[in-house]
Design a protein that fits this description.
The chain is an alpha/beta fold and about 150 residues long. The protein has a domain of about 100 residues: Rhodanese-like domain (Oxidized Rhodanese, domain 1, 3-Layer(aba) Sandwich). Helix content is about 40%, strand content about 10%. It has a 4-stranded parallel β-sheet with strand order 2-1-3-4, with helices on one face. Strand 3, helix 6 and strand 4 form a beta-alpha-beta unit. The chain is globular, with a radius of gyration of 19 Å.
């Protein structure tokens, strides 16, 4: 009687582990230095998804597109704005930045569902997280944005 119960438990566990909804696929990530190097070489477009008050507080990465997730959702869709900025190229490599990697995890998933194929999350963000010390603490370039 013990063997059939173990077999049922093993099958149930296998089914749960193989269900896509139960697995976590956040997508590819980049460290801040790797993202900076790729952006500087012209191989990656950086997109800062924070709010304008956050841009003013910490500054922004030179050359990064500033598409506030909050504002873009009200103004017709974040994915549509990203596509417009990239000339419709959903295969262009994108690096997403926010304060500490939480919003970018959500945005990465949203963009992938919208058909973007090369979306990288810079999970340490501007100010740091468990993924790393962050863009600012690493001493990577930031410029003031007083009119953001």
């Amino acid at each position: 009687m013990l063997v059939p119960r173990l077999a049922v438990a093993a099958i149930a566990a296998l089914m749960l582990l193989s269900t896509p909804a139960c697995s976590r696929n956040d997508g590819p990530t980049l460290s801040a230095p790797d993202a900076y190097g790729q952006a500087r070489a012209g191989r990656l477009t950086l997109i800062d998804v924070r709010r304008p008050d956050e841009w003013r507080k910490t500054g922004v990465v030179p050359g990064a597109l500033r598409i506030s997730l909050a504002a873009a959702q009200r103004e017709g869709g974040f994915a549509r704005q990203v596509a417009a900025e990239l000339g419709g190229d959903k295969h262009a490599p994108i690096g997403l930045l926010c304060r500490a990697g939480n919003r970018t995890t959500h945005v990465q998933r949203m963009l992938r569902e919208a058909g973007f194929t090369r979306v990288y999350n810079i999970k340490e963000g501007m100010t740091g997280s468990s993924a790393g010390p962050g863009w600012i603490a690493r001493g990577l370039p930031v410029q003031a944005c007083p009119r953001c």
